[in-house]
């Protein structure tokens, strides 16, 4: 027997109350890695020449569980992964904080455990506090080998499965390989500066994370980085696939200090949200031009003009736009461009599209007012020749004439799979232009027209001519205007049922389908008839 329990037994309740647990040192690893339904108080260390005596005596030392790894020398680093998992799942923040500073592997994939912990923000803060202590050390703990703190979720890592005994150790050998712990792109050489010489813990230290900086969402990573910048402390390398910035989340100089530590050639998705105008976009554009692996760019609620006092406001805006679009010439991997509620001035859209070097697969332009020249250019610019997804929902133009659309649809008819024209003000007469062009889109799977004032007769004609030629799997159609009462405030169910039955009869030759009403559709706030084909 290598374990003795000092406990009290209450016979009435048939319960043992454990005061102390005496075990052989070989069992220490097993116990520390066990998840108990209670928090372990601490560990008692008795002098080897005395016997167990309950209570406090001079020859007994006491440690918090997280202090064991700092004070004692565990028999094997195999103890660390199960103990760390137990600390994260059990929300033992001090343990997490301490273990970051003594982690014996090159990589710590913390993000893969976030879904299982009770309080992800608190665990992240504890890990970052541990990282801050590690970065401040001139000499690291002798056991610590940490080079990469991976905060990314859903990375498919096998690290924790291996140490849980669910996979072979051969599959985790890459976790101890220096080359595999770093991103595929090369760490920027200029970061090997005097701060690394002063603090060796910074040498090669990389944090893998998606940086999403938003004002209204608490973000422990943002707080960590901003505080270190304000305190003029050095930052680790930051490697991220997704970068999201809100204009007013921090002063531009502080954002600049953070971006200087980001490995920009690893960014694949960039989102700029909020009140970015051409002046602030030009401040950011040198960073954007270095994102050579970028495949997705989102501008939301930005302004592609600048209010400059004086007589040459338009000339100044043209100059600033030219500076910004020039930086886009290096984005050869860009295939998705999303412009949401972007304010354009004059014909600035076509200047933006003209600067793109590679054909786009996805183009979203939502809730914007566009001029004739911009809309006409959409159907002829090189970057729109191979679109697979086109979203123009909420796009309006003076006169509500959509004669430009057939030319664009005919151009991408061989590739277009998703088309969203919701809430564009398209009328029955506009459908006369659209119907033949839609029929040429043989790969079209999704069509959204909700929020447009179309009649039942036009909808039936549109479906009759396009279904045999397209490959529809899902449609969102507007509820015909004649179905409403009281200026679209009341929708009688019996009238809607008749409309849905007529649509069902129109489509019955094309296979089984499911038809339902989406009341006040979340994005357009319009009612929609949703049709999903079961083929």
What is the structure about, briefly put?
By secondary structure, the chain is α/β, with parallel strands linked by helices.
What does this structure look like?
Among the domains are: 3-71, no CATH class; 77-202, no CATH class; 387-535, Alpha-Beta Horseshoe (Leucine-rich repeat, LRR (right-handed beta-alpha superhelix)), CATH 3.80.10. The chain contains 18 helices and 22 strands. The protein has helices spanning 28-32, 68-71, 80-89, 93-100, 120-136, 159-163, 178-181, 194-198, 220-230, 252-259, 278-289, 313-326, 348-354, 372-378, 404-411, 428-439, 456-466, 493-507, and strands at 3-10, 15-23, 43-46, 60-63, 107-108, 148-150, 206-208, 211-213, 237-239, 242-246, 269-273, 296-300, 303-304, 336-340, 343-344, 362-366, 389-391, 418-420, 446-448, 474-478, 513-518, 528-533. Helix 10 links the parallel strand 10 and strand 11 (269-273). Helix 11 (278-289) runs parallel beside helix 12, helix 15 (404-411) packs parallel to helix 16 (428-439) and helix 17 packs parallel to helix 18. The termini are far apart.
């Amino acid at each position: 027997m290598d374990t003795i329990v000092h406990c009290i037994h209450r016979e009435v309740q048939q319960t043992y109350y454990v005061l102390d647990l005496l075990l052989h040192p070989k069992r220490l690893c097993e116990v520390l890695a066990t998840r108990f339904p209670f928090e372990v108080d601490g560990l008692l260390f008795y002098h080897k020449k005395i016997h167990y005596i309950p209570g406090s005596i001079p020859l007994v030392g006491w440690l918090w569980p997280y202090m064991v790894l700092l004070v004692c020398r565990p028999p094997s680093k195999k103890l660390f992964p199960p103990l760390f998992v137990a600390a994260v799942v059990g929300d033992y923040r001090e343990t997490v904080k301490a273990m970051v500073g003594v982690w014996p592997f090159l990589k710590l994939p913390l993000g893969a455990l976030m879904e299982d912990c009770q309080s992800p923000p608190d665990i992240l803060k504890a890990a970052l506090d541990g990282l801050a202590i590690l970065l401040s050390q001139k000499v690291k703990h002798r056991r610590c080998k940490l080079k990469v703190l991976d905060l990314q979720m859903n990375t498919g890592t096998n690290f924790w499965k291996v140490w849980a005994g669910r996979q072979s150790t051969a599959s985790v050998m890459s976790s101890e390989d220096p080359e595999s712990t770093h991103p595929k792109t090369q760490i920027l050489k200029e970061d090997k500066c005097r701060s690394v010489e002063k603090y060796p813990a910074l040498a090669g230290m990389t944090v893998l994370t998606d940086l999403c900086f938003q004002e209204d969402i608490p973000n422990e990573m943002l707080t960590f980085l901003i505080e270190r910048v304000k305190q003029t402390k050095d930052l680790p390398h930051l490697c991220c696939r997704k970068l999201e910035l809100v204009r007013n989340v921090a002063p531009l100089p502080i954002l600049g200090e953070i971006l200087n530590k980001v490995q920009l050639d690893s960014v694949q998705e960039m989102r700029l949200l909020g009140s970015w105008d051409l002046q602030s976009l030009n401040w950011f554009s040198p960073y954007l031009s270095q994102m050579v692996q970028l495949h997705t760019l989102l501008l939301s609620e930005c302004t592609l003009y600048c209010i400059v006092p004086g007589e040459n406001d338009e000339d100044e805006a043209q100059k600033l736009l030219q500076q910004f679009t020039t930086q886009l010439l290096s984005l050869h991997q860009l295939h998705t461009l999303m412009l949401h509620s972007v304010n354009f001035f004059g014909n600035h859209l076509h200047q933006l599209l003209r600067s793109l070097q590679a054909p786009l697969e996805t183009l979203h332009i939502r809730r914007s007012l566009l001029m004739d020249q911009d809309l006409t250019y959409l159907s002829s610019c090189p970057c729109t020749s191979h679109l697979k997804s086109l979203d123009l929902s909420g796009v309006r133009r003076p006169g509500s004439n959509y004669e430009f659309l057939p030319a664009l649809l005919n151009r991408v008819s061989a590739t277009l799979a998703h088309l969203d024209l919701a809430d564009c003000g398209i009328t029955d007469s506009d459908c006369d232009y659209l119907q033949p062009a839609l029929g040429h889109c043989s790969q079209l799977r999704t069509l959204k027209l909700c929020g447009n004032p179309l009649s039942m007769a036009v909808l039936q004609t549109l479906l009759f001519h396009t279904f045999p030629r397209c490959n529809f799997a899902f449609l969102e159609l507007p509820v015909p205007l004649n179905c409403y009462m009281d200026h679209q405030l009341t929708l009688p169910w019996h009238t809607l049922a008749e409309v849905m039955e007529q649509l069902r009869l129109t489509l019955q030759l094309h296979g089984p389908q499911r038809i339902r009403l989406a009341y006040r559709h979340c994005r357009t706030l319009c009612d929609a008839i949703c049709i999903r084909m079961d083929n």
